[in-house]
Write a structure and sequence with these properties.
By secondary structure, the chain is α+β, with helices and mostly antiparallel strands. It folds into 2 domains: 3-75, Winged helix-like DNA-binding domain superfamily/Winged helix DNA-binding domain (Arc Repressor Mutant, subunit A); 113-246, Endonuclease, Chain A, CATH 3.30.870. The protein is built from 9 helices and 9 strands. The protein has helices spanning 3-8, 13-25, 30-37, 41-53, 74-107, 119-131, 147-166, 180-187, 231-246, and strands at 57-62, 65-70, 114-118, 139-145, 170-175, 192-196, 205-209, 213-218, 224-229. It has a 7-stranded mixed β-sheet with strand order 3-9-8-7-4-5-6, sandwiched between helices. Strands 1-2 form a two-stranded antiparallel sheet. Strand 1 and strand 2 (65-70) form a beta hairpin. It is elongated. The two termini are 52 Å apart.
């Protein structure tokens, strides 16, 4: 049985072991559950209580003794539905306080103009944040889009484009020469222009140029994103991009 799947549901390792033990044993008292799950007796009562609250385990009392059993496996789907409802409610609550959080963040003096983000989630978070600075009709410039990034994160990129186009934000992309298969997909998108660097100019890194910010991305095993929030730098990179655009291949 794939325990990793149950971990995705938010169950602890102890809860998973006890649930699977019960599912295998059927109706059982504490002793056999401990032997089957390899969980200490001192922890089993607390774990069973949590599983009961989650609707995954039930119990009955016979001759003054409590016996536990795993509920119908379909209850797992009901548990997922419950978690989804809780997340949806949480999402609504977060959406209500977002304007206040954004206002507070923007009111703080910008002491730093340079920031570094590590890992894919860090890269994704800062790129999504910077994308929100664009208004309808603005243009995101991408210089040196590498093939390796598309191989690793094409699903995210396509979703990013879908949302960008919905917000009517334009995009000009200069791809590495070896990434034509991905560039050709972008050419078919609305509000999107694509060109390619010469064959000998290939790099695993790329640069995003936003209105007042430049994002440098290094596609390492653990990617790094370096952000510089400076309008003059963004303008200079914008000029450099236009030179590269004129000299790139359609």
């Amino acid at each position: 049985m794939d325990e990793a799947l149950f971990e995705k549901l938010g169950l602890t390792k102890g809860e998973i072991k006890v649930y699977l033990a019960l599912n295998n044993l059927g109706e059982s008292s504490i002793g056999p559950i401990g032997s089957e799950s390899k969980v200490s007796k001192s922890k089993i009562y607390d774990i069973l209580d949590k599983l009961i609250k989650k609707g995954l385990v039930g119990y009955l009392i016979k001759e003054g003794k409590k016996y536990f059993m795993a509920n119908d496996p379909h209850m797992i789907l009901e548990y997922i539905d419950k978690k989804e409802n809780e997340l949806n409610n949480t999402r609504k609550e977060v959406q209500q306080i977002l304007p206040q959080l954004i206002q507070q963040r923007e009111s703080v003096p910008k002491k730093r103009v340079a920031e570094m983000y590590e890992g894919f989630q860090g890269l994704k978070a800062i790129r999504e944040e910077l994308m929100l600075t664009f208004k309808s009709g603005d243009t995101l410039l991408v210089l040196g889009a590498p093939k390796i990034a598309n191989v690793k994160w094409e699903g995210w990129f396509l979703d990013f484009h879908r949302r960008r186009i919905k917000r009517k934000v334009k995009m000009k992309i200069i791809y590495n020469a070896n990434a034509r298969e991905y560039g050709e997909i972008r050419k078919k998108m609305k509000l999107t222009q694509v060109k390619y660097l010469a064959n000998d100019l290939i790099s695993p890194n790329w640069i995003d140029i936003f209105q007042d910010t430049v994002l440098f991305v290094m596609v390492l095993k653990n990617p790094l994103a370096f952000v510089v929030r400076d309008k003059e730098l963004a303008n200079s990179f914008r000029s450099y991009f236009e030179i590269m655009w004129k000299n790139s291949i359609s």
